Amino acid sequence: MMAAGLLLGCGVMVSCNITVNGRVTTETSADSDTIYIRMNGDANLTSMESEEISEEEGVEEAPQEYTRESIAGIYDVADDYDRLCFDEDGTGSSGRIGSLNFTSFDFTVEGDEIIITWGDESKSRLKIQNGGKAIYWPENDLTFIKEED
To answer: Model pTM greater than 0.70?
Structure first.
C-alpha cells in the first residue's frame, strides 16, 4: 500500500491510499499547477480525501464560522493592561484591568471580523485570529488573547 500526498499551488492537499502492482510515475510542469500520476499495472484506489492547507505555513486551515456566542469572553493584551469583554448578547466593554472606568459598546460579527459600534456611533473593526483565541485591533496595533475558562 502506498500513500501519496501532493501539495498543489492552489492550496489543496490530496492524499490517496493506493495499492499498485507495477510502477508509479509523476510528472509536473514548471508553468502549471497540475501534477500527473501515472500507474502501470493494476491499481486499487482504497480511499481519497482532500483538505485545504495554508500555502505559507503548510498547516491545516479549516473555515471558521464565528458568532457572538463563539467569541464571547474576556480578552487581554499580554504585556499591557488593556481588556476587551464580549457578551453573547452583542454588548461589550473596553477598559484597563483594575480600573473602575470602562466604555460600553455594541458589536456584530461579520466573517472573521468584529465590528464595534461605540456610543458616538463610530466604528472599529477588529480581526479574529487563531480560531477565536485572539483578536487583533489594527487601529491600536494590539493583540488581545482570550482568557481560558
So the answer is: no
